[in-house]
Amino acid sequence: NGLSARAKAAGKLYFGSATDNPELSDSAYVNILSNSEDFGQITPGNSMKWDSVEPSRDNFNFAGGDVVANLAAQNGQLLRCHTLVWHSQLPSWVSDGNFDNATLISIMENHITQTMTHFKGKCLHWDVVNEALNEDGTYRDSVFYRTIGEAYIPIAFKVAAAADPDAKLYYNDYNIEHAGAKATGAQRIVKLIQSYGGRIDGVGLQGHLIVGSVGSSAALAGNLNDFTSLGVEVAYTELDIRTTTPASSSALQQQATDYASVVSACKTVPECVGITIWDWTDKYSWIPSVFPGEGAALPWDENYQKKPAYNAILNAW
Ligand code: XIL
Which of 17, 22, 205, 306 has an alpha carbon 20 to 30 Å from 30's alpha carbon atom? Predict the structure, then answer.
């Protein structure tokens, strides 16, 4: 019994959590993370990103990613691999290299091929392209978009499909959990890849949400269906639901309701394969560092005590 056991009983592949290498020296943390009844899947929060994996050109370092991949294997957990092409945590040799179109394409192809080949057979999913969109649904002005144009996206998926035919290939983004311009933009990306004859298997909805602004499970599910109607599966890949800190007990109750709404949405959509929270304890959440004054976003508090959200998730499956 646990969050992932319940997800599986509901026909899903997993409920999981992100983790990050520095936290793995905390044995109390690792004990809870390693319980596959709660976490049937893990995602490395940082150690498979470009700046970790290829800090200088053609110089690959998979040590950090291997630690997380090995932990998943040891614990009998699935692995979501994250992420190959992203404007952020991108080393300056790529972002400021002033490469021409053909050179940047070959750099991107090499990064994808080397990285996916190294982890081949271990990744249930790969987030091939992350956060390519602005809030209005237009393309974000990254070095990839500026140099290559929108074709960088289908090119990345084509190379990824060849490198690991068994990994499901995902486009991943935030603020696409509710219908609107950015969600429509992500649907346009799915169709773009398909129009190039490429394979895209899924869309990852990150799910960095705010207590009280999550909306109904019916609305969330309707948005999921706007993706699945294009022939792709979906997953919530980085779920956390933040509030102002210190959190009041009523905020934590609303948070429980909001977590349950997300779980119900995934439950009712057959093509929603699972949910990953962006770490499980407030102690290691990324939220306070990026959104000052906000936090308390995860189902366990900083002392590893379960918050109301835990039972809400459990019972919503
Ligand atoms: C975050 C990590 O959790 C932090 O440790 C890091 O400092 C910044 O990145 N969207 C994503 C994730 O796709 O990779 C980000 O992870 C959170 C937002």
Answer: 205
